[in-house]
Amino acid sequence: MPDLVIEVIIDILLRLPVKPLLRFRCVSKQFCALIDSQDFIRLHLKLSIETKNNLGLILRNSSFFSVDFDSLDTAVELDHPFQSTGRHRTEIFGSCHGLICLSYCLSNDREDLAIYPSTRRFQKFSFRNVGFNFMGCSAYFATSGFGYDSVTDDYKVVRSLEFLSPRKIGSLVKVYNMKSNSWREVKGFPYSHRKERRCGVFVGDALHWVVSLNPSDTANANLEAAFDLTAEDYLLASEHANLVAAFDLTAEDYQLVLQPEFSDKNFHINIVELGECLCILCNYREVRVDVWVMKDYGYKESWSKQFCVVQPEVIRSLEFLIPLGEWLGSPIG
């Protein structure tokens, strides 16, 4: 086949959604080899990100469903690796570049995970609390994240276990590398996670969580803190609690993200990804939600208040408000 014809075919295939591409793998061995090649996959992903095409939403009820983001008309049930084992014990750790990381909890010290792409060819692996002794701990909390390391061209899963003992707060953090199919222990998390089951938000080669300063840290010994026996969590003043921590997937190190100068800090904070940017949701309960976006990652001056959602009388709470994207210049959520 002439080179010009091949270039035209590649250009056409790059503009197609994943589902028809999978069908076209059956056309010939040449088509199959082309569509399965890493170069084609990278180009298809790059074009999809640039044009904001091939976007989808994953919805959960008793099962997982995929919905086309542009049409939002038909929900298709996902045929995922844990579908037959126990739907109610399956959770989504995160998604990145068309890959979904799923978790299925088997017991207190083991869970199976799978990185599940649109092509349905998944990579399955397990997490065990190896080397971590829960004896003597009053409670422990687990959080997670899934993202991409652009330097090593590798996808990583981060699993953090935070435990409370009578004398201190400690943590165990492990990182899974998709390329080597192996876990490694890294430096412990230096902050205290908020006790909500929220996965890390992937932006700028880093995973992000809302955290507070660790009151058991000797460097913060002068902080005033109380321990809530019901929530089993430490309560700090807002300036020490509404913090955003980033875990750099390349350097595998932690740092706090500089936030905008809020005029009123009496809000509940959440973070999401919006248009490939880090987004802070300031929830002034039963009043409004302010949405801030960091346009240039890592620069405090690039924070911009995009819009405000006022609490309507017909809706009880905006606690679970999540902006999904922008449509013709206006945000949708």
Main sheet: strands, sense, barrel: 5 strands, antiparallel
Q: How many DSSP-defined strands? A: 24
Round the mean pLDDT to the nearest integer and report it.
76
- Can you count the helices? 5
**Which class of secondary structure composition applies to the elements?**
mainly beta
How much helix, percentage-wise, in residues? 10-25%
What sequence of helices (H) and strands (E) makes up the elements?
HHHHEEEEEEEEEEEEEEEEHEEEEEEEE
Shape: globular
Kindly provide the radius of gyration, computed on alpha-carbon positions and rounded to a whole number of angstroms.
Answer: 22 Å
What is the compact description of this entry?
With 333 residues, the protein is mainly β. Helices cover 14% and strands 44% of the residues.
How would you characterize the overall build of this protein?
- This protein is mainly β and 333 residues long.
- The protein has five helices and 24 strands.
- The strands form seven sheets. Strands 12, 13, 14, 17 and 18 form a five-stranded antiparallel sheet that branches. A four-stranded antiparallel sheet has the order 4-5-6-7, with no helix packed on it.
- Strand 6 and strand 7 form a beta hairpin.
- The chain is globular, with a radius of gyration of 22 Å.
- The N and C termini lie far apart (47 Å).
Ordered list of secondary-structure elements with their pairings:
Blueprint: H1 3-14, H2 18-24, H3 29-36, H4 38-51, E1 56-60, E2 64-68, E3 75-77, E4 90-96, E5 99-107, E6 110-117, E7 123-128, E8 139-149, E9 154-164, E10 169-177, E11 182-186, E12 191-193, E13 201-203, E14 206-213, E15 225-228, E16 233-236, H5 238-241, E17 243-248, E18 253-256, E19 268-274, E20 277-284, E21 288-294, E22 303-310, E23 325-327, E24 330-332
Antiparallel strand pairs: 1-2, 2-3, 4-5, 5-6, 6-7, 8-9, 9-10, 10-11, 12-14, 13-14, 14-17, 15-16, 17-18, 19-20, 20-21, 21-22, 23-24
